[in-house]
Amino acid sequence: MKYKLFEEVVLNKDIPEKNLKKGDIATVVEYYPVSEYEDGYSLEVFNALGDTIAVITVPESAIQSFTENEVLSVRLLAA
Predict the structure, then answer these.
(1) CB 12 within 8 A of CB 62
(2) Category of 61 on φ-ψ map: left (φ > 0), alpha (ψ -120 to 50) or beta
(3) Which of 2, 3, 15, 30 could be bridged to 20 by S-S, CB 3.0 to 4.6 A?
């Protein structure tokens, strides 16, 4: 599935080096098509006030779209 630029997506896995958790929301900021392997995406992650807290690059399998049976929540970003 190709995600659109600036689409909000959900992380499918933890990214411990950036203190991000499965279920965190990110915004697609770049798409990297790869012919022989899995496509990739650069994502920007914001805190609840809209400040950027991380920019990461992940394979497509690390993200998913929102579904209708999900509820948004807030968690503390551990230092």
Answers:
(1) yes
(2) alpha
(3) 15
User: Measured between alpha carbons, how far is 54 from 24 in angstroms, rounded to an integer?
Assistant: 12
Pseudo-torsion of CA 34, 39, 44, 45, nearest 10°? -160
pLDDT digits (tens, 9 = 90+) for 25-51: 999 999 999 988 899 999 999 999 999
d(CA 70, CA 37): 30
Retrieve residue 21's tokens.
């958790």
Which helix H or strand E contains 8, and what residues bound it? strand 8-11
pLDDT of res. 35: 85
